[in-house]
């Protein structure tokens, strides 16, 4: 269980450390904290935080959370937060602490994630080939900092039906609406042709990027992500407005026909 992701510059790291520790306890030590910078000026304005401070707030916040999870009575004198003998309860179950992953879509941010965190969170936008290059840069930055291999968790758009046409038809209107909103917010890296039919728009957008199709196609798409460097997948399996029956049918297919096969094949590749 994890967050993908919390905009750390907009929050108090002491609160996040307490909430994260609680989630680690109730999940039996399986919590992962995913955090990121944020990029929408409107969100920073609502919280009264200057966007120019987001990198320093992220870096300092990660340090505070790490210390609160591993130390008692933390003293911290930073740019944004001052702590004088602060402790949290409950303590996390994981030792030394739950992993912290940082999200980014740019080279400087990926290098930062490699240096200050345990792993990197990746958005669905890069193609598999683009992601593989970025994963190589992340691994190189970890090695340069004399750090162990980090975790890579990727958010993936995933929808499964008994055949590709049905999957595309059910997902297209709602998934495309999501990306139209992203584009209106300044998202880079994808384009949508409004003149094309929705099904064709989704086929172009999903190619070598998402996992939408039949069980066999979704299995292969997830395996491509794994081979490119993904260690954990966060699967978004529904989008606003979808019929609940279609959502549940897709989830059932994933659980019965896709994930067991992905686990079998990835386990075999490690033997």
The separation of the N and C termini measures 26 Å
How many helices? The count is: 9
- Quaternary state of the chains: single chain
Rg is 20 Å
Approximately how much beta-strand content do the residues carry? 15-25%
Helix content: 40-55%
Helix/strand structural class = alpha/beta
Average pLDDT across residues?
96
> What spatial form do the alpha-carbon principal axes imply?
globular
- Mind summarizing the main beta sheet? 7 strands, parallel
Brief digest:
With 271 residues, the protein is of the alpha/beta class. Helices cover 50% and strands 15% of the residues. The chain has nine helices and nine strands.
Question: What are its keywords?
Answer:
seven-stranded parallel sheet; globular; 50% helix; two-stranded antiparallel sheet
What does this structure look like?
- By secondary structure, this protein is an alpha/beta fold.
- Helices cover 50% and strands 15% of the residues.
- The chain is built from 9 helices and 9 strands.
- Strands 1, 2, 5, 6, 7, 8 and 9 form a 7-stranded parallel beta sheet that branches. Strands 3-4 form a two-stranded antiparallel ribbon.
- β1, α1 and β2 form a beta-alpha-beta unit.
What is the topological layout?
Blueprint: E1 6-7, H1 13-26, E2 33-36, H2 41-47, H3 54-70, E3 74-77, E4 82-86, E5 100-103, H4 107-116, E6 119-122, H5 128-144, E7 151-160, H6 164-184, H7 198-206, E8 211-213, H8 215-228, E9 232-236, H9 244-270
Parallel strand pairs: 1-2, 2-5, 5-6, 6-7, 7-8, 7-9
Antiparallel strand pairs: 3-4
Helix pairs in contact: 1-3, 4-5, 6-7, 8-9
């Amino acid at each position: 269980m994890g967050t993908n992701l919390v905009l750390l510059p907009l929050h108090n790291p002491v609160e996040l450390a307490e909430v994260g520790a609680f989630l680690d306890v109730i999940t039996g030590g399986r919590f992962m904290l995913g955090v990121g910078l944020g990029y929408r000026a409107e969100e920073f304005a609502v919280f009264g935080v200057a966007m120019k401070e987001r990198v320093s707030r992220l870096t300092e916040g990660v340090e505070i959370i790490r210390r609160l999870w591993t130390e008692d009575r933390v003293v911290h004198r930073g740019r944004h937060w001052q702590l004088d003998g602060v402790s949290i309860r409950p303590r996390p179950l994981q030792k030394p602490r739950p992993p912290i992953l940082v999200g980014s879509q740019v080279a400087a941010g990926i290098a930062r994630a490699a240096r200050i965190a345990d792993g990197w969170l990746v958005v669905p936008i890069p193609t598999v080939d683009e992601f593989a290059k970025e994963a190589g840069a992340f691994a190189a930055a970890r090695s340069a900092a004399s750090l162990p291999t980090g975790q890579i968790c990727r958010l993936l758009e995933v929808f499964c039906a008994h055949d590709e046409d049905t999957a595309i038809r059910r997902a297209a209107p709602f998934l495309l609406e999501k990306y139209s909103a992203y584009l209106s917010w300044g998202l880079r890296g994808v384009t949508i042709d409004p003149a094309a039919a929705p099904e064709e728009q989704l086929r172009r957008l999903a190619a070598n990027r998402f996992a939408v199709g039949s069980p066999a196609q979704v299995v292969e798409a997830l395996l491509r992500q794994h081979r490119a460097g993904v260690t954990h997948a966060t699967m978004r399996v529904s989008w606003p407005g979808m019929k609940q029956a279609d959502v549940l049918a897709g989830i059932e297919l994933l659980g019965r026909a896709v994930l067991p096969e992905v686990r079998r094949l990835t386990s075999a590749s490690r033997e």
